[in-house]
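Hey all, sorry for the wall of text incoming. These are the two entities for the joint prediction.
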Amino acid sequence: MKILVGYKRVVDYNVRIQVKSDGSGVVTDGVKLSPNPFDEIALEEALRLREKGVATEVIIATIAPADAQAHLRNGLAMGANRALHVVSDQPVSPLEAAKVFLKLIEKEQPDIVLLGKQAIDDDANQTGQMLATLWGRPQATFASAVDVADGAATVTREVDAGLEVLKVQLPAVITVDLRLNEPRFIKLPDIMKAKSKPLETLPLADLGVALGGGLKTVSFAPPAKRSKGVMVKDVGELVAALKAKGLA
Amino acid sequence: MSKILIVADHLNGHLNGAVARCVSAARAIDGAEIHILVLAADPAALAAEAAAIEGVAKVLTVADSAHAHLIAQQVAPVVAKLAAGYSHVFGPSSSFGKDVMPAIAALLDAPQVSDLMTVEGSHRFTRPIYAGNAIITVEAPADKPVVATVRAASWPATGAGGNAAVEAISVEVSLPTHTQFVELKQGNSDRPDLQAAAKVVSGGRALGSADSFKIIYSLADKIGAAVGASRAAVDAGYVPNELQVGQTGKIIAPQLYIACGISGAIQHLTGIKDAGTIVAINKDAEAPIFEVADFGLVGDLFTLVPELEKAL
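and here's what came out:
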């Protein structure tokens, strides 16, 4: 069984995002880039399925500019067997990313596609659902437990009301939530080993997916700020303040 | 003219409160005619709830046992087929809305606006990125239906008082059988719903155990509040996942939010910044939560929370 994992590079989650003063974007020069945390969880789950003997091969894929090779080497060091680098200098929308991944599915014929439920840059939470739809296969989103047996995956999903369990026939798309697992740390020897693992480069133009049909971002703005309030010295003062606002 | 179809989310025979908030967003589009689509095994009572929302022109119902549990890949083909007659298809940014709307968008070959915050025009909206640390204005293409999830915390619920016509329809479309609902493990709570509650009391890692969390429940019950939690508290197993507030949990906008022992990571703050009044109780005077709190109280929560409960 083959597992394809989406492995996106994003601004590190610890970076304090600043909107440029002219509203043309956010400051990305010199900021730390890291794998999308949800994608690391997706990769970890794929590796565990391989270690359990459920899967035989784990392939990571990204859509990114040419300088993303080190990012993919990182995923290979974590344990993926090989990597696919769809090279694009232009940003791709979630629908376009889904179309690109569909091409990779046609090429690789995976049984499971594991993706993060969202990327922490655009926070769109769309690509997995769109990919499942275009592929005509099941989706199990926001997974906090995955059990694969007999050609199906039983997936526990974190939903508003609690935990929902779905059983989906494979092949299927699974998007992962935070509590599915804790990704492993990369060990130094694995970094060395990753250097010789296969990394295939695919120019986006060769895949026949047209870009530019997505939403047009007109401008960027910082969020409305809450003004800093007051410190109260004790519970009595707090209750008085809440009463004054009609909240107690 | 804009014609907007809203996909209803529901559970246990009631509409999700976010549906009425979706209606508010739809009404912000000039001259919009608003329809709500209810897919359910038995939609009658749900349709009555939807029809009572002010500003709704029509409620469409599809009765099918396949929709007893809303499964994205079984709902999306029905909505996509109906979407031909609409300029916009909206759904709430609930877990169901997030699951199904991109599937609908893909069937329509249209991009999706996630977490729509404000309407700037029929095809121009704002939405948050980077955990709400930047707000972008986006323009959707004019030649496709606009597909969007509506960020419930950004919109008030439209009131009742409507009297829309209800029309039962059937949609000829084949549904996939590759996905099977197994079960829903729901928290058994008599407390108010976290996303609809006027008041929320939340606890963080500082509570230290599931058992200690009872002081949070106790305060919440005293003031009729829902209970929330930080990611750290959920990860540690103090409370179930459905209580998580933040970027990847629930985005809420109660009138009053009381954060106890929550330091205030940006991922948590993004979930509460639409709250009316934020109260923070934390022993660390430097905690980032105090940067956004209207009222801050420094001290030991195990003393202060019970004291607050007594005083309220």
